Amino acid sequence: AQSVTQLDSHVSVSEGTPVLLRCNYSSSYSPSLFWYVQHPNKGLQLLLKYTSAATLVKGINGFEAEFKKSETSFHLTKPSAHMSDAAEYFCVVSSDSNYQLIWGAGTKLIIKP
Amino acid sequence: EPEVTQTPSHQVTQMGQEVILRCVPISNHLYFYWYRQILGQKVEFLVSFYNNEISEKSEIFDDQFSVERPDGSNFTLKIRSTKLEDSAMYFCASGVSGSYNEQFFGPGTRLTVL
User: Fold this and answer.
1) Cβ contact, residue pair B3, A43, below 8 Å
2) Cβ–Cβ below 8 Å for B105 and A95
3) Pairs across A and B, CB distance < 8 A
4) Cα–Cα distances in Å, from A55 out to A29, A35, A50, A99, B91?
5) Which of A102, B4, B47, B55 is the right S-S partner for B106, CB 3.0 to 4.6 Å?
6) d(CA B67, CA B74)
7) C-alpha neighbours within 13 Å on the C-beta side of residue A96
8) pLDDT over 80 (residue A97)
9) Angle CA(B82)–CA(B88)–CA(B94) in degrees, nearest 5?
10) How far apart are CA A40 and CA A86, in angstroms?
11) Cα→Cα distances A49→A43, A90, B43, Å
């Protein structure tokens, strides 16, 4: 069965410094992987997705993620944090048997001025 | 840019009451989904809907729950007799195709059962 582990419930960085949000997954086959972001009182927005093409995926707002099969990881990074990046981020893996999305617990990103 | 909308944003109800959560998917989308997130827990799949019928449902989606597309625009989730443990954020999503690549989410409805 698929599962997703987001290793940090909270990450706090200073504005202008790099962001790293960690995600590990388990899947019995080559999955599709996603990062979603949720700003306060807003819906879930797709940041980026990996679907077995290039392993380095670029998303919106300067975020990118690298699929590493050997490490079963799909960490989200951004070179320089902005105050507007403060939100909750969810790592998601596709189910291998249907169109369900399997969600991680979320990481709350806090940006310090 | 088209987006999925949900109403109400927050619903408070008494245990045992029926609630209907409403969603307006993006207009040309054909696949519809409900997810929920209990406070402090993961987002969980409830049900998917295509061609006026349920295509998949999770074990959470028992006889207490039902979905309907009553007209060409709305997609509703009905909870027949609410329980305290139904308190959660409920997210609607829609997609052009059945691919998990293309699920667009609404802002959610926070349901509080007292």
Assistant:
1) yes
2) no
3) 54
4) 16, 14, 7, 22, 29
5) B4
6) 11
7) 10
8) no
9) 100
10) 9
11) 17, 12, 18
| Dist CA A37 CA A46 (whole Å) | 6
- From chain B, the residues in CB contact with A100 under 8 A are 45, 48, 56, 58, 100
Are the Cβ atoms of B107 and A43 closer than 8 angstroms?
A: yes
Contact (Cβ atoms closer than 8 angstroms) between residue A64 and residue A56: yes
CB atoms within 10 A of CB A22: 17
| Chain centre distance of CA B92 | 4
| B43 neighbourhood in chain A, CB within 8 Å | 44, 90, 101, 103
Per-residue pLDDT tens listing for chain B (114 residues): 788 999 999 999 999 999 999 999 999 898 999 999 998 888 999 999 998 899 989 999 999 999 999 887 899 999 999 999 999 999 999 988 766 566 889 989 999 999
Which residue in chain B is spatially nearest to A93 when comparing CA positions? Answer: B100
Q: B48 vs A42: CB contact, 8 Å cut-off?
A: no
Joined together, the tokens standing for residue A72 give 């079963």
Among chain B residues, the shortest Cα distance to A49 is held by: B101
- Identify the pLDDT of residue A99: 66
CA dihedral for B45, B51, B55, B59, sign (positive or negative): positive
Q: Which amino acid is at B56?
A: E
User: Which of A35, A100, A103 is the mutation pick for testing B, counting most B CBs within 10 A?
Assistant: A100
